[in-house]
């Protein structure tokens, strides 16, 4: 129903629910769902995301496949000396391994870029 901070039993129940969700074969999460994000990460799944309606209109398509199993970081930090005035966008620093979230434009998430990862791996070990 709602978050209850500093209540151990409540937190244990929430974690149990997220774990149980992670055991499913497929998962559909609603936009901005923390439980869904945690479950998809634990289960190693790329979920289907139900997009939020805008102006009482259902998006077309109403859902889409996530780009990775990583959860969305809704409010990434701003870096640099100008952090209090906008700073440097975390997306610019971490690119090409970070993209915008499918369900939150200001959020970021990790994804793998096979060719880039392969080159990094080769440069480290060969």
Description:
Helices cover 33% and strands 12% of the residues. The model has no long low-confidence stretch (mean pLDDT 76). The strands form 2 sheets. A 3-stranded mixed β-sheet has the order 1-2-3, covered by helices on one side. The chain has a two-stranded antiparallel ribbon with strand order 4-5. The radius of gyration is 17 Å and the shape is globular. The protein has helices spanning 8-22, 34-43, 90-94, 114-125, and strands at residues 28-30, 48-50, 63-65, 98-100, 108-110. The protein is built from 4 helices and 5 strands. It has 126 residues and is an alpha+beta fold. A hairpin with a 7-residue loop joins strand 4 (98-100) and strand 5 (108-110). The chain has 2 domains: 1-71, no CATH class; 76-126, no CATH class. Helix 1 packs across helix 2 (34-43). Its EC number is 2.4.1.-. Belongs to the glycosyltransferase 37 family. It holds the Pfam family XG_FTase. It is a single-pass type II membrane protein. This is Fucosyltransferase.
């Amino acid at each position: 129903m709602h978050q209850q901070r500093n209540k151990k039993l409540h937190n244990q129940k929430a974690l149990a629910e997220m774990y149980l969700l992670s055991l499913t074969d497929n998962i559909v999460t609603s936009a901005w769902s923390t439980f869904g994000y945690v479950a998809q990460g634990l289960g190693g799944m790329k979920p289907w995301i139900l997009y939020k309606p805008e102006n009482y209109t259902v998006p077309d398509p109403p859902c889409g496949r996530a780009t990775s199993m990583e959860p969305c970081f809704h409010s990434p930090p701003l870096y640099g000396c100008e952090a209090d005035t906008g700073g440097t966008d975390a997306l610019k620093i971490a690119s090409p391994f970070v993209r915008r979230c499918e369900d939150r434009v200001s959020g970021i998430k990790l994804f793998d870029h096979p060719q880039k990862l392969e080159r990094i791996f080769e440069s480290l070990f060969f």
